[in-house]
């Protein structure tokens, strides 16, 4: 952009001022951090525009498991915020008296002890109502905002670390690239997908005519939205029309062929008028050594014992613009602390930026690169580095393990029979309804385990069945 025009078009100003009395929630997401044992710090991040009503001092989060017949209502206190979140100078936003809509982050969190080990924990938070200025949903002011996560407490797990906050700006009529994914601190494989926002767990909010889950925002005619299930990267060319766009991204965590968690992120895009020009397009990746390019978002290394190097060339079509690499907000050097990054401007052109990257000891992970134009609007790009000949979980058909339990209710003994898988060992752990471990039994049989209650008193118990240390089934036992 050669001319920095920070004034929004009049139509957008009218839209943005039409919902003064709404909650003005613009985005939300859960986060899970393991502390020890069954204890987790669970956080809910809420994002609202700076003109919204006051946020509450506490929020109510629903925690339930159908398998374990538990339904709790948790109260999380406000522990952080407000923090202004923006990819443009804060002084230009309404948070500090500017004209471009600004946004704030509020964090609610608490330490939660899982009362039982269950594979189907479901956490949810909902609030009414959405901003009437939203342009891509039908009747947004009467629709709520809902985020949710499912969680398997039978395995130690930390939620993904996302590349960027769920509120981001774009330039009208220009290339738009945003890294909606993240990396997993436990090394779990992540799968991303676009989704319609929810009003309640069973009620997706319809998009306006012409938009859909695959294309939730207005784009220039003749162009398309691309989205990577591997990295969560979204690329498109935004329409020149003013719009405020909300949609969700689903994040699945996979470990050893089993899905152990899902997270729903509620996101918002705000295209603004920057006076014409073109933002940079996705970069060209080349000069690989010790590896190869799989697709636009994925690279493979041949040997983990050898340095893995490559370069990325970014170009802005406006000759007067200056591109810079924002190392502080990129996650490349967080994921790979020993990475060496060199930034140059080929042929002295400041609108061209080349990053030469070397990773001494590569390992599988996702990472992001943040590029700024004239130290102003950020574009984010995400990539996967993986070992050669790796198969992604979303390209493999996985079948749930079928387990037959008979009889249940249990007089003295019952049989667990695995119907469609074979394991060297089976292990059954049984818990009382307050979460205490009361029995552990193992067998070397490859598909049958006989459980003897011993002197356990009558009552309802939860169980976990593992095959070769992998959790394959959970549920309830009734002892008569």
From TrEMBL:
One Pfam family in the UniProt entry: Por_Secre_tail
InterPro entries xrefs: Secre_tail
Recorded superkingdom: Bacteria
Start and end residues of each Secretion system C-terminal sorting domain: 405-467
Keywords for this protein: Signal
Record field: transmembrane: none
Extent of the signal sequence: 1-22
Name the UniProt record assigns to this protein: Secretion system C-terminal sorting domain-containing protein
Source organism: uncultured Aureispira sp
């Amino acid at each position: 952009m050669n001319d920095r025009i920070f004034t929004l078009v009049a139509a957008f100003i009218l839209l943005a001022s039409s919902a003064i009395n709404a909650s003005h929630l613009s985005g939300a997401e859960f986060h899970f951090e393991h502390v020890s044992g069954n204890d987790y710090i669970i956080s809910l991040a809420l994002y609202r525009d700076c003109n919204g009503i006051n946020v509450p001092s506490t929020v109510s989060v629903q925690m339930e498991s159908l398998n374990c017949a538990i339904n709790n209502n948790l109260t999380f206190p406000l522990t952080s915020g407000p923090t202004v979140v923006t990819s443009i100078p804060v002084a230009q936003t309404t948070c500090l008296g500017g004209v471009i809509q600004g946004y704030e982050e509020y964090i609610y969190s608490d330490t939660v002890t899982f009362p039982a080990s269950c594979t189907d924990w479901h956490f949810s938070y909902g609030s009414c109502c959405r901003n009437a200025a939203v342009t891509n949903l039908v009747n947004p002011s009467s629709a709520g905002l809902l985020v949710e996560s499912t969680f398997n407490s039978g395995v130690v797990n930390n939620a993904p670390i996302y590349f960027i906050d769920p509120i981001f700006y774009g330039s009208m009529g220009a290339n738009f690239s945003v890294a909606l994914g993240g990396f997993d601190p436990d090394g779990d494989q992540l799968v991303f997908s676009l989704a319609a926002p929810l009003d309640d767990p069973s009620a997706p909010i319809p998009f306006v005519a012409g938009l859909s889950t695959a294309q939730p925002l207005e784009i220039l005619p003749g162009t398309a939205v691309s989205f990577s299930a591997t990295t969560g990267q979204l690329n498109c060319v935004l329409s020149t029309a003013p719009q405020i766009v909300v949609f969700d991204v689903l994040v699945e965590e996979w470990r050893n062929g089993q899905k152990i968690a899902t997270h729903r992120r509620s996101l918002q895009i705000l295209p603004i008028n920057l006076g014409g020009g073109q933002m940079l397009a996705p970069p060209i990746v080349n000069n690989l050594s010790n590896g190869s390019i799989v697709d636009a978002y994925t690279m493979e290394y041949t040997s983990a014992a050898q340095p893995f190097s490559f370069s990325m060339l970014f170009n802005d079509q406006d000759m007067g613009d200056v591109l810079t690499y924002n190392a502080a907000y990129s996650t490349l050097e967080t994921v790979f602390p020993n990475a060496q990054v060199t930034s140059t401007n080929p042929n002295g052109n400041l609108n061209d930026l080349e990053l030469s990257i070397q990773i001494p000891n590569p390992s599988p992970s996702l990472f992001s690169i943040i590029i700024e134009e004239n130290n102003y609007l950020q574009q984010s790009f995400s990539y996967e580095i993986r070992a050669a000949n790796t198969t992604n979980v979303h390209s493999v058909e996985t079948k749930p393990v079928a387990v037959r339990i008979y009889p249940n209710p249990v007089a003295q003994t019952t049989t667990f029979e695995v119907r469609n898988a074979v394991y060297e060992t089976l292990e059954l752990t049984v818990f009382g309804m307050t979460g205490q471990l009361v029995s552990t039994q193992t067998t070397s049989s490859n598909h049958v385990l006989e459980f003897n209650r011993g002197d356990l008193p009558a009552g309802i118990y939860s169980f976990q069945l593992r095959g070769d240390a992998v959790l394959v089934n959970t549920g309830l036992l009734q002892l008569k």
